[in-house]
Amino acid sequence: MNRFLISICSRYVQVVITMFAVVCSASAAQSGNAFNPSISLILNGTYGAFSKDPSVYGISGFPLGEESEPGVEGFSLGETELSISANIDPNWYGAFTLAMPGDGSPGVENAYIQSTSIGDGLTLRGGRFFSGIGYLNERHAHTWDFIDTALPYRALLGTQYGDDGIQIRWLAPTDLFVEAGAEWMRGDSFPAGGGANSGRGTWSGFIHLGGDVGSSHSWRAGLSYLSAKAINRESGATDFFTGTSKILIADLVWKWAPNGNTYRRNFKFQAEYLQSSNKGDFTPGGASATPYSATSSGWYAQGVYQFMPRWRVAIRHDQLKTDDPGVVFNNTTLDKQGHNPKRDSVMIDHNFSEFSRVRLQYNRDQSQPKVDNQWFLQYTMSLGAHGAHLF
Predict the structure, then answer these.
(1) Is 190 inside any structural domain?
(2) For site-directed labelling of 119, which of 267, 306, 365, 386 has its Cα 20 to 30 A away?
């Protein structure tokens, strides 16, 4: 009997020791990897067909930034993104994104540190990042609902405004989502340029509100303001602008999903209005600097409907208008040619999973007086760790 009890106890002790060793080993592994970075890679490829040559693309009356083209003809490698992020220590988080265009040189898209322990709803960010203005601006291209950005963003913000600087955000401790933020940035990116004011040429402020309506609806609205100074800002190869652009943005997003379950069906309405006031000197190619003052504006509205699991359809309309700057700017990029640019888009995509998507899109683009029929086929694939997307 004693031998039997000793045998049982011995086996019990062995089991306990084995379990303890496994737990300690797992804890050690977890501790050793606690601050290892998350790494992700976004693969993107497109096929484009245009009825007009995309290499001579323009928007009547609007000088454009260097990344405002609609795409390239035929097969092409889209923008590949390599991202690395991790907690640095209990006080700081770091993120880095390298963007590699298929037809250009790699560039640092994001490289910033962000506080994690200030408290009271405050967050501080420093480095290079997309500004928090508007709704669409700080979203990476692979999260867009269309292959291309909205026309007002392309014309007034050079697709997206990102720059080097600092940002502070405050999240209010309320049931209603209330977020406010301010930024002070270098001013190297369109609509700024040249790092005016000794590398402190741009500032912005924004406020976002949001909440739920019942169990099936949610919304977010915002107001943003960007003041950007430019010194010899280049548009195309030969046009330059020195002056100030002040941009006001109003945005609204409304989402619906039955009882909050987005798996089978959901719908998103999204709209933004942008107004830009520009004042300074514009130098068209081959001419001298001429005083320039004009107000430009644009808006877009889109709806995206997931009608069954993994399948979505969408429609978008965007439109622009600008003041006529006068006959002195005839036959330059500021010549609106009596035309108000607009575009209509339709899209259908299939998401094999949350990491892979194939999309077909058509644009009837009237950025210039002559219609450009644009067709796109795109794949977007995500490898590795990938955080949740913004609302």
Answers:
(1) yes
(2) 386
Tell me the residue type at 126.
G
Which tokens go with 87? 């907690």
Prediction pTM value: 0.88
Alpha-carbon span 13 to 10, nearest angstrom: 5
Separation CA 99–CA 213 (nearest Å): 38
- Give residue 21's pLDDT band: very low, low, confident or very high (50, 70, 90): very low
CATH number, domain containing residue 273? 2.40.160.10
CA–CA separation, 388 vs 10, rounded Å?
A: 49
Using one digit for the tens of pLDDT, what is the confidence trace for 301-349?
Answer: 999 999 999 999 999 999 999 998 888 888 888 988 889 999 999 999 9
Give 387's contacts (C-beta < 8 A, 6+ positions apart).
38, 85
Reported as a single tens digit per residue, the pLDDT across 181-190 is 999 999 999 9
Burial of 352: CB neighbours in 10 Å, binned 0-12, 13-18, 19+: exposed
**How far apart are alpha carbons 170 and 141 in whole angstroms?**
26
CA-to-CA distance for 146 and 316, rounded, in angstroms?
Answer: 9
* Overall domain count for the chain: 1
For 52, other C-beta atoms within 10 Å of its C-beta total 16
d(CA 385, CA 382): 9
